[in-house]
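Re: the 222-residue chain
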Amino acid sequence: MAALTQNINAALKENLIPGLCLQAFALVIAVAYFRWPAAAPLFNYFADLKLAYGWRYAMLSTALFGGLIPFLYLWLNGQVKQSVMPVLIFYFLFWAYKGVEVDILYRAQAYWFGLEADWVTLAKKVSVDQFIYGTLWAAPSMAIGYLWKESQFKLSYLKEKLTREFFFLQIPTTLVTNWLIWLPAVIVIYSMPPALQIPLFNLVLCFFVLLLTTISKHKEAS
């Protein structure tokens, strides 16, 4: 318990400023949508794409913003230590799948709770997103997926790393960090019209991954 508390405190301290930056970024996007008429054509463009292609848009856009762009950043900065092609394929396919998964979640929540953006509806959607989907599936599956990548895509290496410490220390720490960063951002995402939720999620996701990459780079250099 002491180790978990120490890890969580360190994670909160480390991610507080990046989390505030990410939340401010999401808020700026929302304010631009609701208060800046000149931005309407851009928002309408992405909304039309989402409406036209549905889950296919979610799949490809999330693969781009969550996978390809962060991968290119890592590669160009010399942070890809494994064979390039398997890592690129992993990033692209992993986030393509996650894009479809998140799109299903957003559609399901719209069906369950409606399309209104009042605080009661937002509270229901955010709670399901962060404390059920995020806690029971999204964070653990992401942690295991990236651990598999770090294990050179070998199941035998992965099995060795799936220790008690991983499940009872690393994953809970990751969960608390995700809540700190994503809770306010998810409120903003669910306040947007359904056709713009995936596009905003993609932008926040890309910023989130790049911020974490920058933090990791600085930690390794220190």
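Residues 218-222 have pLDDT under 50 and may be disordered.
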